[in-house]
Amino acid sequence: MAPRLLCVAGEASGDRLLAAVLAALRARVDVDAVGLGGDASAAAGLRLLAGARAVAAGGLVEAAAHLPAVVGAYRRLRSALDGSSAALLVDFPEVNRRLLERSRAPVAWLAPPQAWAWRPWRARAVARAAWVGCLLPFEAAWYRAHGVAAEWVGHPLAEASAPPPAAEPCVALLPGSRDGTVRRLLPVMLAAAIRAHRRRPRLRFTLAVASTVDRLAVRRAVVASDLPIALRDDAPAALAEATVAMAGAGTATLEATLAGRPVVALARLHPASAAVARRLVRVDHVALPNLVLGRQAFPERVQDACTPEGVAEALEIVLADPGRFSPDLAELHARMHQPGFAARAASRIAALL
User: Fold this and answer.
1) What residue segments make up the domains of the chain, in order of their start?
2) Which residues are CB-contacts of 283 (< 8 A; sequence separation ≥ 6)?
3) CA distance 206 to 199
4) What pLDDT tens digit does each residue of the chain (353 aa) get?
5) Secondary structure letter of residue 267 according to DSSP
6) Beta strands of 136-228 (E only): which ranges?
7) Which of 152, 163, 162, 164 is nearest to 339 (CA)?
């Protein structure tokens, strides 16, 4: 009988990570993988106990609406944990921290909480994991300094070849993989895009619609904008046609820049969530590429600056001369590149099983 592996990925980016690792793991060992994930991990062999879309939320206040779904999913995952040989947790820190504390089986945590950015005391909880796989090059050293068995495993986004840029200027809109984030950021992106299109009438747009968001609501917003926007099923497809990007702060900014597209990063929280974040966050930048590089190489528009006017201004800076960002893009790729992400992570989890 195959050992059971409980897998938990509560967001679209985590779902893609889990899918890659699960495919590599199943090529090595026979395993019964069950848990929380999305379409990608289900296609890789995960038996879903709950779907990622129902539980994805960003911000303290924003998460309240998802609380019943999160509690229900947690109870199912906790029950499955008791009969599992090991667990693979991916990002999704609030739920995964609780599962880690309850687990009697060995636990691997891929993409652990960004405790280096805020709430550093979370490292004490992460230290309970048997193995921790970090995606950013500076994370593992930070965690090891805080007593965690952490390893930099690389990032799958850095392994893909960057597509050639489009012949004509085109902006990829990457508003995120959570309905709440899309509701906050997409109107700002579209209003900024309208301003950019007035200035550059030949400018085109693509928009990535994650499988975890309300596609109909996105389509309605796009139609109302009256802009030449092509909807695409994911970020790689949207970026392949683009020369630059606008993206919600998070994995999308890293995805855009590792695809060779300069990015304008947007971040906008509920005012109460933002007030809490201002007291707790300990980093100078919100975009992952800027954090990796240690400087603001790419424009950021955060909270009060995340307005149509502010974003349009930043977008014009990028559109005016995308080539000026080429050294930053090359340096980012050099720092992030470490081939073999999925195989490396799968070997560690196979050892736990």
Assistant:
1) 4-156+339-352, 170-336
2) 116, 117, 118, 291
3) 18
4) 899 999 999 888 899 999 999 999 999 999 999 999 999 999 999 999 988 776 755 444 444 455 677 888 899 999 999 999 999 999 999 899 999 999 999 999 999 999 988 788 899 999 999 999 999 999 999 999 999 999 999 999 999 888 987 889 999 999 998 888 999 999 999 999 999 999 999 999 999 998 888 999 999 999 999 999 999 999 999 999 999 999 999 899 999 999 999 999 999 865 544 444 454 455 578 899 999 999 999 999 998 899 999 999 999 999 999 999 999 999 999 999 999 999 999 999 999 99
5) E
6) 150-152, 170-174, 204-208
7) 152
Name beta bridge partners: 300. Answer: 265
DSSP classification of residue 149: -
What is the phi/psi pair of residue 11, to 5°? -140, 165
Give me the phi and psi of 51, to 5 degrees please.
-100, 145
Which pTM does this prediction carry?
0.87
| Tokens read off for 313 | 């201004």
Give the HSE-up count for residue 235: Cα atoms under 13 Å, Cβ half-sphere.
28
CATH class of 4-156+339-352: alpha beta
Q: Which amino acid is residue 342, in one-letter code?
A: A
Estimate the share of the chain in helix, then strand, then coil, as percent rounded to the nearest 5. 50, 15, 35
In CATH, what is the architecture of 170-336? 3-Layer(aba) Sandwich (3.40)
Write the DSSP symbol of residue 132: E
DSSP 27-74: TTS--EEEEEE-HHHHHTT-EEEEEGGGT---STTGGGGGHHHHHHHH
